[in-house]
Amino acid sequence: MSARPRDSLPISAIRVTGQVALFLLQLLVQCGAALGRPRLIVLQIYNAGARSLIIVMLSGLFVGMVLGLQGFDLLQRFGSEDALGIAAALSLIKELGPVITALLFAGRAGTSLTSEIGLMRATDQITAMQVMAVDPMRYVVAPRFLGGVVAMPLLACVFNVVGLLGAHLVGVQLMGVDRGAFWSQMQGSVVLNDVMEGVVKSCVFGLACSLIAVHSGYTAAPTAEGVGLATTRTVVASSVLILLLDYMLTAAFL
Amino acid sequence: MRATRTLEIGTGLFVLLGFAALFFLLTQLPANGIRLAGSAAGYHVTAEFDNVGDLKSGSPVTMAGVRVGEVEAIRFDSRSYKAVVSLRIDSQFDRIPDDSDASIQTQGLLGGKYIGIGPGGSDAYLKDGGRIELTQSAIVLENLINKLFASFVSKDSSGGQPVGAGSEKDR
User: Fold this and answer.
1) Is the pLDDT of residue B160 over 80?
2) pTM as predicted
3) Which residues contact A133 (CB under 8 A, 6 or more apart)?
4) Are A209 and A102 in contact (CB under 8 A)?
5) Which residues of A124-156 are buried (b: 16+ CB within 10 A; e: fewer)?
6) What would the pLDDT profile of B52-78 be if each residue is shown by its tens digit?
7) Are B146 and B157 in contact (CB under 8 A)?
């Protein structure tokens, strides 16, 4: 199922890419059928989204507070600390929000997807389903994939709002930037496109993370070691892919 | 049964929270979004300016450097060709003389614009719906630079010494 060791590195890289693309096609075909079972998807939204909420909000708060502190220190040197609102809002909604949320998502939700599906394969649950003519792609993989795709953009939005509150907390309450100037300059400079950029990025990251997570779980070697390796692969591959996609999307939006 | 209930409530809360956050980002952040800011207590006065620069609604209004209110709305008066700025002054600052002047100033070199109110000497105070007569517009930096260069050029052509070149001729 996975790339054989005797393939040379470039060949196996191409092969894995092809596998993932084919897997995505199969998955998209099954997604339509999986939508007929909303309860399964709700369960996965809960697992991937609602249970990641605390860590995302906490990280968002601290990232926002750091932005407030650093931004204030930098802008103060130019006597324009009122621009803190713009600096914090743009860096949060365009870059930090989607990217950090996606990294957290890969670590928190992606790993659990991979190990869950990988263990199902290792304990022959997936084979059992196939024997009973139940398509595991439809009942196991597709709902998890869809749950991740739905949860990720929502998590990024929550991260952004909490981050803004953190920046406001430090900038306005602690450092004494004028509240009206903070918000009015921010609202004057942020346009709808900036917000949309963040939303599109988080949707793409959600898709990429979920796809990598379910694929590497589904193709994991059916051993304890194989599940461990697959989980590691999920985190590494997701993180690299997120940053790569981030660069490409930023370039596309400029 | 109990487990499904927690599951559904948890998911519902998460989805609602996510969409509330998305709504906030879409409507409250961008300049073209919808404002839901509640009107705080205070009274309103208006002032007309020839040029407001990049003053925005929400910019602070100060007296002697202390914040006393904020800019609530800026609109264009098509008859006088001036910008009409309505200010909301916090109700505790109710003793501003009605012949005070308002000027648009800049915070720092690159900072945003704000309105500074200089007190007048009248015994009557500004009331809700009042109007500040004396105003000074925003200083547009480009215009100042243009004037400066224009003065250099005119001095040059009339045979006078340009300001910066004096030391050179003395040698």
Assistant:
1) no
2) 0.73
3) none
4) yes
5) eebeebeeeeeebbbebbbbbbbbbbbbbbbbb
6) 888 888 788 888 888 888 888 888 989
7) no
The residue length of chain B stands at 171
Are B18 and A189 a contacting pair at CB < 8 A?
A: no
Question: Residues with Cβ < 8 Å from B96, sequence gap 6 or more?
Answer: B63, B68, B89, B117, B119, B125, B126
Tokens describing residue A59: 């990280």
Among A50-59, B24-33, B131-140, top mean pLDDT goes to: A50-59
Tokens of A215: 């694929």
Per-residue pLDDT at B157 exceeds 70? no
Among B4, B13, B26, B29, most A C-beta atoms within 10 A, so best to mutate, is B29
Q: Minimal Cα distance from A181: which residue of B? A: B59
**Prediction ipTM score:** 0.73
pLDDT at A230: 93
Q: Which of residues B16 and B29 earns the better pLDDT score? A: B16
Under an 8 Å CB criterion, which residues of A touch B? 42-43, 45-46, 49-51, 53, 78-83, 89, 93, 151, 153-155, 157-158, 160-161, 178, 180-181, 183-192, 194-195, 198-199
Least confident of A85-94, A111-120, A222-231, B122-131: B122-131
Question: Nearest-5° angle of CA A252, CA A199, CA B6?
Answer: 155
What are the tokens at A240?
């690299």
> Contact B21/B28 with Cβ under 8 angstroms?
no
Q: Do A79 and B110 touch (CB under 8 A)?
A: yes
Q: By three-state DSSP, how is residue A124 classified?
A: coil
What string of DSSP letters covers chain B? Answer: -HHHHHHHHHHHHHHHHHHHHHHHHHHHSSTTS-------S-EEEEEEES--TT--TT-EEEETTEEEEEEEEEEEETTTTEEEEEEEE-TT----BTT-EEEEEESTTT--EEEEEE----SSB--TTEEE-EEEPPPPHHHHHHHHHHHHHHHHHTTPPPGGGHHHHH-
The two tokens of residue B123 are 């015994």
Interface test with chain B among A91, A150, A184, by most B beta carbons within 10 Å = A184
**What is the per-residue pLDDT for B165?**
46
